[in-house]
Amino acid sequence: MDVIRPENQGPPLVKTPTVNTFGIRYLRSGPGWVEAEFTPDQRFSNNFGLVQGGVLAVFLDNIMGQSCYTLAEQEQSLTTTSLNLQFLEPASLGLLKGSARVVKKGRRMVFAEGEVQDARGHVLARATAAMLVIRRPRTPAPTS
């Protein structure tokens, strides 16, 4: 699994295709939390010229998942089982900031919350998620 490091050199995060597609920049991270940003352009807009709501959902799902990965063991993967999202204000195209944190970590489930803000600090959307902890197969040791 490829990893990325936030700009503050916090815990390693998972390099997903979503990170590349959206151009997500992870600014800071620590155990159980992350801060990120991305700048949606016309490709991510709806017919009103605003950021399409599903794009905000993907961004929030990604950053909440990353906050959970900061606490995951090396042989664990996570998958979202529940995502609840509230849109509070329309999101204009341009810089958006996101933050997420783990609310509770159990043996089989991890719960997180996150929010998206515009460049002025107005909260545009909030979300909660439940992530299932999965043991992924380990890479077999090389044979000689």
What does this structure look like?
The chain is α+β, with helices and mostly antiparallel strands. It has one domain: Hotdog Thioesterase (Thiol Ester Dehydrase, Chain A, Roll). The chain is built from two helices and eight strands. The strands form two sheets. Strands 3-4-6-7-8-5 form a six-stranded antiparallel β-sheet, covered by helices on one side. The chain has a two-stranded antiparallel ribbon with strand order 1-2. The longest helix is centred in the middle third of the chain and has 17 residues. The model has no long low-confidence stretch (mean pLDDT 91).
Q: What descriptors fit this protein?
A:
single chain; 144 residues; alpha+beta; Thiol Ester Dehydrase, Chain A; six-stranded antiparallel sheet; two-stranded antiparallel sheet; 8 strands; globular
SSE layout:
Elements: E1 3-4, E2 13-14, H1 17-22, E3 25-30, E4 33-38, H2 53-69, E5 76-87, E6 96-105, E7 109-118, E8 123-135
Antiparallel strand pairs: 1-2, 3-4, 4-6, 5-8, 6-7, 7-8
The number of helices is 2
Mean pLDDT comes to 91
Based on helices, strands and strand pairing, what is the structural class?
Answer: alpha+beta
Helix content: 10-25%
Main pleated-sheet profile = 6 strands, antiparallel
- CATH topological fold name: Thiol Ester Dehydrase, Chain A
Q: Which value, in Å, is the CA radius of gyration? A: 16 Å
Number of domains: 1
Q: CATH homologous superfamily, by name?
A: Hotdog Thioesterase
Q: Which regions are unreliable across 5 or more consecutive residues at pLDDT < 50?
A: none
